[in-house]
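Q: Could you fold this chain for me?
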Amino acid sequence: MSTFVLVLENDLREVSQIRKTLKHDGFELVHCKTVPEAKDLIGQFGFQLILVDLVLGGGDSSLDFVRYARECQPQLGIMVISGRNTVSDRIAGFQVGADDYLPRPFDDAELAVRARRLVQRVQGRAAPPEGLVYRFSGFTLDKRRRTLCCRNGEPVRLTGREFELLLCLVESGNRVVRRDALASFICGRSWHVLDRSVDVMVSNLRCKLRAAKPDEMLIKSIRGVGYCFGTRVETLA
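A: Sure. Below is the predicted structure, expressed as C-alpha cells.
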C-alpha cells in the first residue's frame, strides 16, 4: 500500500531525485510548485507526509503553508527541506509546526530514513507504537525496546549512539550512507573531513558485532564516502 507524500518544491530536478529516492519505500509523490496548489491538494489525498522547500520564490511563504497544514491536519508529518540552515531558520520551521528540518545538500539515504521514521511517528500519534523488529545474520534488533540480541537471545550491549548508528544503517536498505549524514543523524551536528567520531563509533560497533558473530563483516566501508550495511535484513511485524 502506497504512502502519499505531498512535495512543495519548484525545482523539478530536486523533485525527480526525491521521487527516485523514496519510491523504493512505497512512497507515492504528489508534486506542486506553489502554496495555493498545495492548499488545494492537501484535502484531496490521504497524505501522511509533506516535504516543503523553505524558499519557493514568487512571493509564496512556505512557513505560512506549514502553519496552515498543521492547523488543517494535526496528525500530518511535515518535513522542511532547505538550503538555509541557520539556527533562526530551523527554529522558525519548528515554531510553525514542522516535525523535522533537513538541510541541503543531504544524503538520499538520510532522507529515506527520516521520511520512514516520520511516517511511523505520525502513525503512532493515533495508536500506541508497536515498534519494528529487524532480523539479520542471526541478530534481532528491536526498535521499540532499543535492544540487539544474538541468535541465542543474549543481548549485545550498545551505547545509545551505537544503537542509532546500527539502526540507521539497517534502515538504509543497503544503500551507502555518507559520514556527514551519519554525523547529522546520530550526533545532531555537522561533520568535517578531520572529524573521526563516526569512524570511531563504527569501529566500536564492529567489534561488538564481531564478538557475537566473528565470521561476517556486517558494516562495509565505502572508501572516501561512508558506510553501508552488507547483509540482507528481514523486517518482522
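A (continued): The chain has two domains: 3-126, 133-236.
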